[in-house]
Design brief:
heterodimer, A: alpha/beta, Pyruvate Kinase, Chain: A, domain 1, 6 strands, B: alpha+beta, ATP Synthase, domain 1, elongated
């Protein structure tokens, strides 16, 4: 009996300390979501402007013949940029991204295209190296606070491989989009060959102005397109960072709730055991006293 | 007279936005001055250039160091998309002078050092934006 009581006490203590840790993680994550969201907001104007500039150029020059916009007839290799987190404790966040990436890989292979993974985030990198899959590129260490430099680095590797003769013919991004505090969805986007995506739905009849170019349309496009790709990747990284914190907050909240539930159950069990012990002791004492009294009565 | 609506943005934040009478920037073809009702233009900016926004009235000019990027003009709206940009008023002059000296030293030591040359160019632009003589 005493042993069971001790065991329960020990478990309660350990669950309590776990709850403290998860609660702290939850609080940290919620304060970080705010920051991540602010960074997302701060990056919006640039993305909007660059998208407008790209659509301006593309609508002006009738025949855009830039290597980054031309679709190959027979694509054979596709790069898949997978954005995961560096740390764990974020529930199904990475599993969801990797599952979607696997689905995309299957889809591409069905079309006869080999998928080459380019992975950002420690979790994705270990996932791939554990399965000894070859990666076209790997980046780690910035999943919670991506800077534009990181996005640039990734974009450079991808564009270089895209331009190379025997490189990749398509580039897809698999990342998590931050919809709201409670909803994050995994999205798959093709970024190259380029399809200009409007960030805001524009009215049909809005006519884009006829631009003059300094120095020439080709030169502008040549330096504009890589920036556009960088900006898209940067946005994906920021969205993923915010989603990671949101996922972490949710996972840690449910962990804390579970721990508190466990503590409650264990405390009840412990009280029951203690009660039972006391009852037994009392009945033993009463039984013993009765036996003594009976024996004394018999003698007289 | 109509005013220009100007926005200076970098990937990580919006640096400045407001109204102005004239914007002067340096593209790869040379300096370009934009006043209201300018024809739509899309230009590539040089590395280490200085952007000047004439706000008119009592407010002085807004000067910023802009490193690469684009300027796009349409419908009296001017957007400057800079990969890196810094307002003249935000420049730490002493630190930038140090950076310039360091970069200059590595350029002198190795004329092929493109990165140091670029760094020197940027430092110069920052100092010029802060109103210092270089």
């Amino acid at each position: 009996m005493g042993a069971q009581l001790r065991l329960l006490r020990r478990r309660i203590k350990s669950v309590k300390s776990t709850a403290k840790i998860t609660r702290a993680q939850e609080l940290i994550a919620s304060s970080k979501i705010m920051k991540a969201q602010a960074r997302m907001q701060a990056a919006l104007p640039y993305e909007r402007e660059i998208t407008r500039a790209v659509s301006g150029v593309v609508s002006n020059t009738a025949s855009v013949d830039h290597p980054l916009t031309v679709e190959k007839d027979q694509p054979t290799r596709a790069g898949v940029l997978i954005i995961t987190s560096d740390g764990g404790f974020c529930g199904g966040f990475n599993a969801n991204v990797l599952r979607e990436a696997e689905a995309l890989k299957g889809l591409l292979e069905g079309r006869g295209i080999t998928a080459v993974p380019y992975v950002a985030g420690t979790k994705g990198v270990t996932w791939h190296s554990f399965r000894s899959r070859e990666m076209g590129g790997r980046w780690t260490g910035f999943s919670r606070q991506p800077s534009y430099r990181d996005a640039k680095e990734i974009a450079e590797t991808l564009i270089e491989s895209f331009k190379a003769e025997d490189g990749i013919d398509e580039i897809h991004i698999v990342s998590t989009e931050f919809v709201s505090m409670l909803t994050q969805t995994v999205v798959v986007k093709r970024i190259l060959p380029l399809e200009v995506v409007e960030t805001e739905a524009e009215t049909e009849d809005a006519i884009l102005p006829y631009f003059e170019f300094e120095p020439t349309a080709e030169a502008v496009l040549e330096s504009l397109l890589p920036r556009y790709v960088e900006s898209r990747i940067f946005t994906a990284l920021l969205q993923s960072a915010a989603s990671e914190e949101a996922a972490r907050r949710r996972a840690m909240k449910s962990a804390t709730d579970n721990a508190n539930e466990l503590i409650k159950t264990f405390t009840q069990q412990m009280n029951q055991v203690r009660q039972a012990e006391i009852t037994q002791e009392i009945s033993e004492i009463v039984g013993g006293a009765n036996a003594l009294a009976d024996a004394a009565a018999g003698k007289e | 007279m109509a005013k220009l609506r100007v926005g200076v943005v970098s990937p990580e934040r919006e640096i400045w936005s407001g109204e102005a009478d004239m914007v002067i920037a340096k593209t790869v073809d040379g300096e370009i001055g934009i006043m209201p009702s300018h024809a739509p233009v899309l230009g590539v900016l040089v590395e280490g250039g200085v952007l000047r926004v004439k706000r008119g009235g009592d407010e002085g000019d807004l000067v910023a160091a802009v490193h690469g990027g684009f300027i796009s003009v349409a419908d009296n709206e001017v957007s400057v998309l800079a990969e890196q940009a810094e307002l003249g008023s935000e420049v730490d002059v002493a630190a930038t002078r140090d950076a310039l000296q360091r970069a200059q030293a590595s350029v002198d030591a190795d004329a092929e050092d493109a990165e140091a040359a670029l760094e020197a160019k940027r430092a110069k632009a920052r100092l010029r934006a802060a109103g210092e003589e270089v």
